[in-house]
Every structure is written in C-alpha cells, then in structure tokens.
From TrEMBL:
The keyword Calcium does not apply. Keywords: Transferase. The gene is Tgm1. It comes from Nyctiprogne leucopyga. The keyword Transferase applies. InterPro entries: Ig-like_fold, Transglutaminase, Transglutaminase_C_sf. This is TGM1 glutamyltransferase. Signal peptide: none annotated. SUPFAM superfamilies: Transglutaminase, two C-terminal domains. One of its GO terms (molecular function) is protein-glutamine gamma-glutamyltransferase activity.
Length: 99
C-alpha cells in the first residue's frame, strides 16, 4: 500500500469550471505484473460562498430598512460585472445593485 498526495490548483481547474459547481476527477493506473488497468472517478462538490444579510436598524412598517450585505470572494481572481438583487414581500420590482 502506498498513499500519494496530489494537489489540484485553482489556476488549473478554475478556467474550466464555468457555471458548474463540481469537479470530476479521474485517476488511472496499470498493474505492471498483470497489465490490468485500474481506474476510479470522484465527483467533488464545490461550495458556493455565502451572502450574509444584517439589518442595520429595526424594521418598521412603512419605513426604509437599511440592510448590510457581505460577500467574501474566496478566489484569487477579482470579480467583475457582479450584480446583487434584493427581493422580498412588498418589493414589486427588485432593484439591481451593480458592483
């Protein structure tokens, strides 16, 4: 038995992920004595970063309510063209916020 550690860097898989939220890894090898090919696949689910919403003042009927939205980009690349939309009861037309 032998364990081999391999690292898959974001710079290698990042350009190929697109809108997908998973990676499929395949490992294959050959048994020298028999010539038998062995292979294994693994599907790795990527985690989506969370948005955190915090009320900055008490919510009062009929008044605006300030909300803080926090998102931390875990990637080494700068995000561009991001848009946030807030929806909720009584908000008839969600207003996009360009970042």
């Amino acid at each position: 038995d032998e364990t081999v550690a391999m690292t898959v860097a974001y710079s290698e898989y990042g350009p190929h992920v697109g809108d997908q939220d998973a990676l499929k890894l395949t490992v294959a090898g050959v048994v020298e004595e028999t010539g038998q090919v062995v292979a294994k696949e693994l599907r790795v689910q990527l985690h989506t970063p969370e948005l955190t919403l915090t009320l900055l003042a008490p919510a009062v009927v009929g008044q605006e309510t300030p909300v803080q939205v926090v998102f931390q980009n875990p990637l080494p690349d700068t995000l561009s063209g991001a848009t946030l939309r807030m929806e909720g009861a009584g908000i008839s037309c969600p207003k996009p916020f360009q970042m």
